[in-house]
Amino acid sequence: MSHIPANKLLSVPTDSLQILPLPHRDYLLSLVIPTYQERENIENIVKILTYLLDESIPGEYELIVVDDDSPDGTWEIAQSLMSEYPQLQVMRRQGERGLSSAVIRGWQVARGEILGVIDGDLQHPPHTILQMLDAIGKGADLAVASRHMDGGGVSSWNFVRRFLSRGAQLLGLIILPEVLGRVSDPMSGYFMVRRSCVVSTTLNPVGYKILLEVIGRGNVGKITEVGYVFCERKQGESKVTWKQYVDYIHHLVRLRLSTGRLGRFSQLVGFPIGRFLRFGLVGLSGVFVDMGVLYLLSDPTTLALPLTRSKIIAGEIAIFNNFLWNDAWTFADVAMQQREWRQRLKRFVKFNLICLAGLVLNVLVLNLVFNFILPNRYIANLIAIAFATIWNFWVNLKLSWRVTQVK
Ligand code: GDD
Ligand code: MN
66: Cβ below 6 Å to ligand 1? Predict the structure, then answer.
């Protein structure tokens, strides 16, 4: 086991969200504690978990706090605890943010056979871990702490929170029944899974629901659920906002697209069809932007500027529009790992050059088809746009939004 100097923070992985197989097993359990603004809770949760796991699996576990640079200094407090709790590791993320990606980054550096997650605010009763470990020991691939099993429940959630949670679950059952239908509490953020079930799949979550990603993209066989009561927070407050609900719907749709028939076909042909469809929709929005700006600049009833100059300005504004949407939607999972403005500027310059080359290809194909194959300018233009779109998509996928596998 490689010795890590005391109080040294873990380095943050920057490549794609993939869990690798272990070269050798150091621990039975790696338990990730995602934190944001948990300064009043962090020492308590580490102390309680240490007491519990020293009793049951001494020397066989590690705790990994993954903090997103909490302004309240949660990561500093956790770091100061490392000398007292040798099995504690701490990761401070400063670029990437979000509960689900925090859990996966923790699992990426984990050295345990079983990967687990527990909230850092003591709302997930720690003793349930022993029941989940027992379930995995008895052959389950995934053990989930569920509020909707015998012995489960929520402390004193108001009607709205209960309604939203159950409503979200119902929506998920409609969009992704084969995932959410496998457990009674798909919203649970408290579970553990065998590493072997999630290795070499690129997990791609948004928001809070990491369990959906594990069931949807992992290779999970037997699932066991154990009832638990979701406790009231004693310190701090929940970070759940309306954004988590929007992320949740986005996550469901994305999982639907990538794990349904379309997703399996695109894996079969090795072409990301879902992403290409998004790229095409963004391109369509660019056509409207291009046409609109061309009208405003060159139409005799507006500014009546020269056509070529208007077209160049319109084309460039459309390219900028397309870059913004592609960076925020089509390739969001890649862009969120390269957030610095220099990285974003570099992507924009590459995207621009590739699209300008695409414009040249567009004009060449248009003339080729119109003059030698089909003398109908509009059909020829559609064929030319199709060629240019495939060129733009494929070259941007390979050059602009590429995850450099940093070893
Ligand atoms: N690193 C990191 N980054 N941690 C975060 C972030 C983030 O952006 N947002 C929240 N956390 C941490 C919090 O510090 C806490 O430890 C845990 O994730 C849960 O966050 P809460 O804001 O307390 O969520 P909740 O209590 O409303 O809901 C939780 O429990 C539900 C039932 O299990 C979440 O885990 C939900 O996903 C879960 O459904
Ligand atoms: Mn909470």
Answer: yes
Is this prediction's pTM over 0.85? no
Residue 223 is assigned to a structural domain of this protein: yes
Mutate to test the pocket of ligand 1, among 93, 240, 243 (most ligand atoms within 8 A of CB): 240
Q: Which of 36, 155, 166 has the most ligand 1 atoms within 8 A of CB, as the residue to mutate?
A: 36
More confident residue, 266 or 7: 7
pLDDT at 404 over 70: no
Residue 247 sits in the same domain as residue 276: no
3-state secondary structure the chain: CCCCCCCCCECCCCCCCEECCCCCCCEEEEEEEEECCCCCCHHHHHHHHHHHHHHHCCCCEEEEEEECCCCCCHHHHHHHHCCCCCCEEEEECCCCCCHHHHHHHHHHHCCEEEEEECCCCCCCCCCHHHHHHHHHHCCCCEEEEECCCCCCEECCCCHHHHHHHHHHHHHHHHHCHHHHCCCCCCCCCCEEEEHHHCECCECCCCCCCHHHHHHHHCCCCCEEEEECEECCCCCCCCCCCHHHHHHHHHHHHHHHHHHCHHHHHHHHHCCCHHHHHHHHHHHHHHHHHHHHHHHHHHCCCCCCCCHHHHHHHHHHHHHHHHHHHHHHHHCHHHHCCCCCHHHHHHHHHHHHHHHHHHHHHHHHHHHHHHHHHCCCHHHHHHHHHHHHHHHHHHHHHHHCCCCCCCC
pLDDT score, position 405: 42
Q: Is 189 in the pocket of ligand 1 (CB under 6 A)?
A: yes
Domain total of the chain: 2
Last residue of a domain, one of 266, 292, 327: 266
Q: Is 74 in the pocket of ligand 1 (CB under 6 A)?
A: no
- Among 223, 242, 266, where does a domain finish? 266
Q: Is the CB of 99 within 6 Å of ligand 1?
A: yes
Average pLDDT over residues 53-58: 96
Whose alpha carbon is nearest atom 32 of ligand 1? 188
Q: Is the CB of 213 under 6 A from ligand 1?
A: no
- What range does the domain containing 315 cover? 272-403
Tens of pLDDT along 218-253? 999 999 999 999 888 888 888 878 878 888 888 888
